[in-house]
Amino acid sequence: MPERFYGVRHHGPGSARAVVRELAEQQPEILLVEGPPEADDLVRWVAAGGLEPPVALLGYAADDPGRAAFWPFAVFSPEWQAIRWAVANEVPVRFFDLPYAYRVGAATTPKPGPEDGKPGAPGIPEDGPGGGGPGVPDGGLAADGAGGGGIPEGTPGGGEAPAEPARPVDPIGELAAAAGYDDPERWWEDVVEHRGVPVFEAIAEAMTAIREGAPEDPDDLLREAYMRTVLREVRRRHENIAVVCGAWHVPALTRKVAVKDDAALLKGRRKGKVTFTWVPWTYGRLASWSGYGAGVSSPGWYHHLFTSTDAVVPRWLVAAAGVLRAEGVPTSSAHVIEATRLAEALATLRGRPLAGLAEVTEAAEAVMCDGEPLRTELIARRLVVGERLGAVPEEMPAVPLARDLTAQQRTLRLKPEAAERGLDLDLRKDIDLRRSRLLHRLRTLGLPWGEPAAGRRGTGTFREEWVLRWQPEFAVRLVEGSMWGTTVLAAATARAIRRARAARTLAEVTGLLETCLLADLGEAYPAVLAALDTRAALDADVHHLMAALPALARTLRYGDVRHTDVAGLATVTASLLKRICAGLPSAAGSLSDDAAKQLRDGMDGVHQAVSLLADNDLRELWLATVESLARRPDLHGLPAGRITRLLSDAGRLDPAEVRRRLRLPLTVGTPPAHAAAWVEGFLAGGGLLLVHDDALLGLVDEWLADVPADAFDDVLPLLRRTFGSFDPGERRAIGERVAGPRAGVATADAASIDEERAVMVLPALGALLGREIRIREDP
């Protein structure tokens, strides 16, 4: 039987089924698959039970792991199914695309990749195994979409790709338009996915017609020249050959081209040294919206089409009902039945062979979601895209750092998952403490598997909240991180020391010091502390010193919680605070509005930091400095008001003195803008003072009533910013107090106290405080 070319739409379940049927009929002697030849030795792992798609081939430069590329495969990828068939039937498999070593060794001008700038998200150009070459439209709708696709050669946090011209033609879009479809994906589903009949010859003929009038991409020409070279070599030893590649390439591979022409294109290409392995992948990264230009818009739906042999629509809607029920949305079997009927009716009205994703989505939204778009989006996220994460065998070749992480994940029972999930840690438990240290160490290596939860209060308490989500590109980060050490601890320690020595600002070093605490990098601590001492001595900017102090205070306060030795840090912290107190008066003069805000924020941070230090002398030094600033008549209203609030909270001012100080800026003759800034500084952070102090509230209310009309417009934004930061309950209570007592509600005398009822709580209060509480009798 002569050689056969199977031009596929990658990540298409219909193409995958058709390829397997055709291979079973052809029974080829050898299978050629579009992909990096350096990965030929990894084909044997497809037969291993531990390799579960979605997975990807990872290739990276041996001397620069940041230059890496992925070639993803799903269970419904035609290449994956073809390789599985070949391995099961003992048919040799070869990848025959342009070697990745040529891309690594090419001296090309870099340009930003499709996902540059997104932390931890490498861009993915549309090439690789089944890659359609650069410029394939998002959604992978080109006939040679991509079963793979290399990420740009650069760092995994936003690498760089070689400069490549984009192909202006969307082949599937052209065919869909010719058939009268405005949606290429819908056309492909109707013609291929839902009919299940081989259309390889028809698609190849269509690709030939489209390529005749389309401009050629130099990158495609280079790749196809190499493919033809491999084909010629294979033909010398085999006659019955099967070729699985993107349909876009089929016309070029079947066309007769002189050997010398292909040789001329490939001549002079320099190869680099590359390494390949299998890594887990996710359906989220397979989706076109992730930046993978050769991806598909609905990998979860395609997985369902491939794995469901019957009752496709009902099974899908049953799964959708399960998603809704898990979120507390009541969904019965009657909903599923009615949604199935509606989806099939829509397909009939639209002349489709089977209800597609559009029909089942519309039916689910109308019947099961009650027309709520958020519920429909939930189904789309959980099912249409999916949260599936692949797996690779533990024996898979990997760098030692990756092996160490895998071992720790197993020991700490932290399984990598593509779906986002929360993790609450109690640092008093040994396993949770070790989990916390691992997550912080990985963040030090630039691998944010876990991110601190947005609502988490402070750092260093006994409780931590994390949000975990594993991303495929972390495999590249692990390869990169291996340059720092063979274990997570050793690599994080070396990375922290390097960053400390290279730090240019004091804030960088203090952040690293806190990192050493959180990640328990004991060996890095001396080097970071030395860098801190050096930077603190050289930095004379008070604002820099104030920004550095909170991290040091947290480290001192919570070092014992994590059983971390923080000896020597107290001296540096005390020296830093003394320098802040000495330099603060000169930094507080002649402030602009922006500088006043910066000073206010810095003082807030220092005040909170001092409250964490178990040193009364340092606390008195800080409060004395603040009191001296409060007496300055030239101080900007924002820090002046804030200082009064800080002294009040610290118990250094009685309520009468607070009200007296408030009256001063609120008197007639004081510019309204200065008064508003004073009020903003005083009230920032909460409005409970106004709720509980009638006299204070009355002062603010009277001042507002007396603000001249021509100045009110200037004052209003400041007041809205101040009061807008209050909790809704505080704003409501303030409004009720200003409006006066409600009708029929008697006001309580704040001075009258029921002593008998008050005494009843003293035993319980004493038990909580651990001491006996007695009532002092007045003489």
Describe this structure in words.
- There is one protein chain.
- The chain starts with a strand and ends in a 10-residue tail after the last helix.
- It is elongated, with a radius of gyration of 34 Å.
- Among the domains are: 4-298, no CATH class; 308-385, no CATH class; 400-481, no CATH class.
- Helix 22 packs antiparallel against helix 23.
- The chain is built from 34 helices and twelve strands.
- The longest helix has 20 residues, at 593-612.
- By secondary structure, the protein is an alpha/beta fold.
- The model is unreliable at 107-167 and 742-750 (pLDDT under 50).
- It has a four-stranded parallel β-sheet. It has a three-stranded antiparallel β-sheet with strand order 4-3-9. Strands 10-12-11 form a three-stranded antiparallel β-sheet, covered by helices on one side.
- The chain is 52% helix and 8% strand.
Key features?
779 residues, alpha/beta, 4-stranded parallel sheet
Annotate the secondary structure layout.
Blueprint: E1 4-8, H1 13-26, E2 30-33, E3 55-61, E4 64-73, H2 78-88, E5 93-95, H3 100-105, E6 110-112, E7 160-162, H4 171-178, H5 184-193, H6 200-212, H7 218-235, E8 241-246, H8 250-254, H9 259-266, E9 274-280, H10 283-286, H11 299-307, H12 312-326, H13 333-349, H14 357-368, H15 373-385, H16 400-411, E10 421-426, H17 430-444, E11 450-452, E12 463-468, H18 474-481, H19 488-502, H20 506-519, H21 525-538, H22 542-558, H23 569-587, H24 593-612, H25 616-630, H26 637-649, H27 655-663, H28 672-683, H29 688-692, H30 694-706, H31 709-724, H32 728-739, H33 755-760, H34 762-769
Parallel strand pairs: 1-8, 2-5, 2-8
Antiparallel strand pairs: 3-4, 3-9, 6-7, 10-12, 11-12
Helix pairs in contact: 1-2, 1-11, 4-5, 7-9, 11-15, 12-13, 12-15, 13-14, 14-15, 17-19, 19-20, 19-21, 20-21, 20-22, 22-23, 22-24, 23-25, 24-26, 25-26, 26-27, 26-28, 28-31
